[in-house]
Amino acid sequence: MHEQRLQNRPDGLANSLRGAGAGAQPALHRKLPSLHIPVLLIAGALDSKYSRLAQDMAGRLPEAKVEMVDHAGHTVHLEQPEVFDRLVLQFCGAHLAC
To answer: Is residue 19 included in any domain, yes or no?
Structure first.
């Protein structure tokens, strides 16, 4: 993972943050209580900022489920892909009609 991150270009990372970073997105926290659908919030236990945000969002979302993944930081899907996949598949299986 570390080697992969070293391949990132600074200008590419900067453009990603400009377009998709938290500061570029509207604040919608006050609207979360009106979202009445199942929501899965996955955060890495090693990412204290997003773990707190997930817990905060779960407190505002009527149908939220929070999963904290051990041994993972900001990129759970890359750091613990099997755990991430299992959590998403279980959640979808429980909430989607096939």
So the answer is: no
- Asked if residue 98 has pLDDT above 60, the reply is no
Tokens of residue 62, six digits: 């009527």
Check residue 74 and report its DSSP letter: S
DSSP 7: T
Kindly report each contact of residues 27-30 with a partner whose C-beta sits within 8 Å and lies 24 or more positions away, as own/partner: 29/56, 29/57, 29/60
Into how many domains does the chain fold?
1
* Token pair recorded at residue 11: 């200008």
The DSSP letter of residue 67 is E
Q: pLDDT digits over 12-43, tens only?
A: 666 666 666 666 677 788 999 999 999 999 99
Provide the domain limits for residue 58.
43-98
pTM of the model: 0.78
